[in-house]
Specification:
Helices cover about 45% and strands about 15% of the residues. The protein has about 350 residues and is α/β, with parallel strands linked by helices. Bound molecules: glyoxylic acid (GLV) and magnesium ion. The site of glyoxylic acid has 10 residues, from helix 8. It comes from Aeromicrobium terrae.
Length: about 350
Amino acid sequence: MRPPRTFLRPLAVGAPAPVTEIPVKPSRMIHFFDPSNEKMAAKVPDIAAKVDIILGNLEDAIKTEMKEAARQGLVDIAKKTDFGETQLWTRVNSLDSPWVLDDLTTLVTEIGDKLDVIMVPKVEGAQDIHYVDRLLAQLEARAGLDRPILVHAILETAQGMVNVEEIAGASPRMQGLSLGPADLAASRRMKTTRVGGGHPGYLVRTDPVSDDLTEGRTTAQQDLWHYTIARMVDACAAHDILPFYGPFGDIKDVVACEDQFRNAYLLGCVGAWSLHPVQIDIAKKVFSPDPADVAHAKRVVEAMGDGSGAVMIDGKMEDDASCKQCLVMLDLAKALAERDPELAEAYDL
Ligand code: GLV
Ligand code: MG
């Protein structure tokens, strides 16, 4: 690890100074598009206006023979599109692939001024972030950028999970982490064949009620991702960076997608990936606080005054700690309301 005194020094002569705080911007959905697909690329300006983050994907889901077209497509789209307040991200190919060096070199030097965050897949430890960190500094210096591009790591290998805390703190560029349930399942040798979400076989069952072991016993499906998301959220919160749930592959099952997103929201995630326009609305609904929760939070904060002591509201005890939870809710509501007049009205802010 770099010593504290040098942690915030640029890693190349002429590179911009690292940020001391990760900017907290609306980040409810990271919407993925394939820049090699001309039909999809033509829709980017319209979709960008509807999402918090739009991401040009160069990694998995892009066929080998389309890798270069996707990279060039992203350069062309970024140059001609005004993204307004919407953040532009990319997911580059993995660090062990033959494409990633050209991905980083081309994107930073051609459209580095437009790119907010680079998502790095299959990160296994701090060493992967250190490699990208130094290379980005060199490229930013070459491109004459005046602000650093941030880095987002996908947690999708068993090694990455074991090293999640050192990854989260590996560089001042670290913006956040996403759970990649599909690759992680493969890396862990889980016996699932899905992209995220639950599995009906992962359950608990009540005790037998008679000699017939099949009679009168209820079962409840359990959450395959609870441990992983909670661990990722702790690593992110401890390092003041942002956690996200990743993909939910069953596009038709909008109900289970909403459940998965809500579990992540309640555990502390700020957003999730959207792989199809239908998931944009789900993420918007789930990751924007419920107006009733915001109204309650306002009541508690007002009643608590300077935040010390305790008050009773509707028969429930509220104190410093519940007031702090309410402030988390209110801060998020205010940040979203600043950009969305409908939410500002719903929250009465
Ligand atoms: C995402 O990249 C995943 O593997 O789930
Ligand atoms: Mg993956």
